[in-house]
Specification:
It is a single chain. The chain contains 10 helices and no strands. With 171 residues, the chain is mainly α. The chain is globular.
């Protein structure tokens, strides 16, 4: 089964990645914000989004550990935690600066991993999807646009690292 998944170019779907961190921790952030807003006493005294972000920052780090401590999970979790901490402090993180600010120390601390396919592909894909679809774009088009952007951005690395790119990668 593993060979078939690898041959189809779908191994990234099963790996703990930034997408998984985003889905899990982003959902927790939304739930925390909703819970704060449900309390009229608390919501009058604090900024619900900032409090939720303050609680979500350490939860992002805990998720990386619970997910098995894979480097991809740590990169995504630390990036999310730094972004949440900035939001909790009342700052609005700039996505490209946040990604670079978290990727550079990883590369400096472990130069061998900085040239690994996983690291290179995760950074390329993340940067490719940072530009959201314009407001009003139908969801299906926004999803397709994001998929195509990530595929195009990572295709040269996939060919370089693995000797070919799957044709169904966009799907």
């Amino acid at each position: 089964v593993e060979g078939a998944i690898r041959g189809a170019g779908l191994t990234h779907v099963l790996a703990v990645s930034g997408m998984h961190v985003t889905l899990v921790v982003g959902s927790l952030l939304g739930l925390l914000r909703w819970l704060v807003l449900r309390s009229s006493w608390l919501s009058r005294r604090v900024d619900a989004a900032r409090l939720a972000a303050a609680v979500a920052a350490p939860l992002a780090l805990a998720y990386a550990e619970l997910a098995g401590g894979a480097p991809s999970a740590w990169r995504a979790s630390i990036t999310a935690a730094v972004g949440f901490a900035l939001r909790a402090a009342g700052r609005r993180p700039r996505p490209i600066v946040l990604v670079a600010g978290c990727a550079i120390p990883f590369a400096a601390l472990d130069p061998a991993s900085a040239v690994s396919p996983a690291f290179l592909l995760s950074i390329a894909a993340t940067v490719a999807v940072l530009d959201p679809a314009p407001p009003g774009t139908p969801v299906a088009w926004a999803v397709a646009r994001t998929s195509v952007r990530a595929t195009v951005a990572t295709a040269p690395l996939v060919v370089w690292c693995f000797g070919g790119a799957p044709l169904v990668g966009v799907l």
